[in-house]
Amino acid sequence: MRVILAEDSTLLREGLIRLLAEEGHEVLAAVGNATELLDEVSREQPDVVVTDIRMPPDHTDEGLRAALEIRRRWPDVGVLVLSQYVEKRYATELITDDGGRVGYLLKDRVMQVGEFLDALERVGSGGAAFDPEVVRRLLARTTHADPLATLTAREREVLAKMAEGHTNAGIAAELYVSQSAVEKHVNAIFDKLRLSHTSGYSRRVLAVLRYLGS
């Protein structure tokens, strides 16, 4: 894939450049701030952008705002956001983007090379990838929610995997069950959350949002 990196830590940026090159990806540009990121995306139209949330000059949400701008202006460009911490508002903003090609990983996950590359591939191929720890933190807010209380333990597991961005086939592999079993659980989730008559990808997004209590 053709990738643009945005990360103000020189050490991490150079490490990602080397890793992606070794995996056969083409790094079109590697920049240290959000302004340069938007300029490079406009110029190169990459397959995927990998960006930190906090970058110069204020180290607040510059990368996130750039990511949302990229999603608005270039919807065919995948965006994989990296963060040092679980920032709930930012994660929720990305999860609500029902166009796919989006992900949110904690930087610690980058050290798990296989998981990072899998997330990159999923985002680049039009899917979604959300860090399990991010999902766990978000789901911690939802134990009081109803009708979520009607979900079985397995249905909650399936919904958590949906929140991470896995397809039904991916969930089956993660939970070591058949795809038909996952499909039954997903349909049960839609029924219990009163989403049976909603069509398309938006139904999965709405289920996740209900689960996150948003």
UniProtKB/TrEMBL annotation:
TM regions (residue ranges): none
CDD domains reported for this sequence: LuxR_C_like (cd06170), REC_NarL-like (cd17535)
HTH luxR-type domain span: 144-209
Modified residues (4-aspartylphosphate): 52
Domain of life from the UniProt record: Bacteria
Sequence ranges assigned to domain Response regulatory in this UniProt record: 2-122
Gene3D superfamilies, alphabetized: 3.40.50.2300
InterPro entries tied to this protein: CheY-like_superfamily, NreC/VraR/RcsB-like_REC, Sig_transdc_resp-reg_C-effctor, Sig_transdc_resp-reg_receiver, Tscrpt_reg_LuxR_C, WalR-like
Pfam families named among the record's database cross-references: GerE, Response_reg
Signal peptide location: none
Key words, A-Z: DNA-binding, Phosphoprotein, Transcription, Transcription regulation
Protein name in the entry: Response regulator transcription factor
Species name: Amycolatopsis tucumanensis
Lineage: Bacteria, Bacillati, Actinomycetota, Actinomycetes, Pseudonocardiales
